Amino acid sequence: MEITGSQKIKAPRTQVFSALLNPDVLKNCVPGCDSAEFVDFPTGRQLKLTVSPNVPGFKGPYTIFLQTGEVVPPSRVVLIAEPNSSLGSVRATCITDLAEDGDGTTLSYSANAQLDGKIAATPEIMIKGAVKMALDQFFKNFEKQVSSIRA
Questions:
Q1: pTM for the full model?
Q2: Which of 32, 90, 96, 106 is 20 to 30 Å from the Cα of 78, by its Cα?
């Protein structure tokens, strides 16, 4: 499953970049996010999110660990998630590119997810619809959060 898109954010690129890796900002932007914190593992630092989505059949709460792949300040962040639950597993990679755009920043993303288990049996159109709705809400929240931060 692949999802791509872009969002204009009324804030400087460096500010948007920092916000993408800020647990407090993410907690306030991810729909259904109960908590967000950094956790240290032998393999490196990861962002731990506890999320209770408002999607029928996927109530949660779920714990999701995000690790960074490629990070190129202030223009690119690659996040990798591998949440597992009784419904199956997901391996997702999201490439986020930031470009200066007049008085703000254009954030472009490309996400790819492989699904296994019961969750893979759910029709892709349903999952994609729920993910698209969550992404729309995330970006609405993210734009509001980031544009209100005073650098």
A1: 0.86
A2: 32
